[in-house]
Amino acid sequence: MLDFWKARQVKTTAIDLLAPFAGKRDRDKALIEPDAWLHPHVVGFLAMFVTAVARRRVGRLGQSALGDAQTGVLAALSGLGPDLIGEEVLLLSAQRHPAFEEGCRGALAFFRTIFRDTGSDGPDGDPMIALLAIAKAPIQTGLIRSEHDQALLAEIWAEHVDAYLSARMNRSN
């Protein structure tokens, strides 16, 4: 039961961190074909990002709790049902799908950029204070030290998520 409480913390944190990037998509959500969110690259990126946040936030989670966190975040961003997303994560991971794995590598680059040169877990030793501070004020926190780093995060997001969602926009709406 404790794992599912931890998974809830992970979901909230991951959504808060991704909101500045995914929020740009809110205005386009009606135009994005729902299955665009199921592109293996996008699924890999988001699932791995949640896994990285989980490890940093709460340590290891059981498979069910981690799956709950991953599907919860993907469902919140996409509006798709968590069962469908969970099945995609499992299948793509088991198949070692190349696009899924490339998305995973992109998520790790995104995550590492957030923590570049921090030298610590963040203020008062709490890594989540650092993460949430970035989400609210990325440059002012000192963790992302420049507009260049913020631009790098936006570039990684665009390459690994926006490119796949934009390609699947329904222009007839």
Q: Which short descriptors sum up this protein?
A:
mainly alpha, 68% helix, 173 residues
Question: How would you describe this protein?
Answer:
- The protein is mostly helical.
- It has one domain (2-166).
- Helices cover 68% and strands 0% of the residues.
- The protein is globular, with a radius of gyration of 16 Å.
- Residues 118-128 and 134-143 have low confidence and may be disordered.
User: What low-confidence regions span 5 or more consecutive residues with pLDDT below 50?
Assistant: 118-128, 134-143
Order of helices and strands: HHHHHHH
Q: Could you say which overall geometry the principal axes of the C-alpha atoms support?
A: globular
Number of strands: 0
Number of helices: 7
Care to give the gist of this entry?
68% of the residues lie in helices and 0% in strands.
Q: What's the structural blueprint in terms of helices and strands?
A:
Blueprint: H1 2-22, H2 40-58, H3 63-78, H4 82-95, H5 98-114, H6 127-136, H7 147-166
Helix pairs in contact: 1-2, 1-3, 1-6, 2-3, 2-4, 2-5, 3-4, 5-7
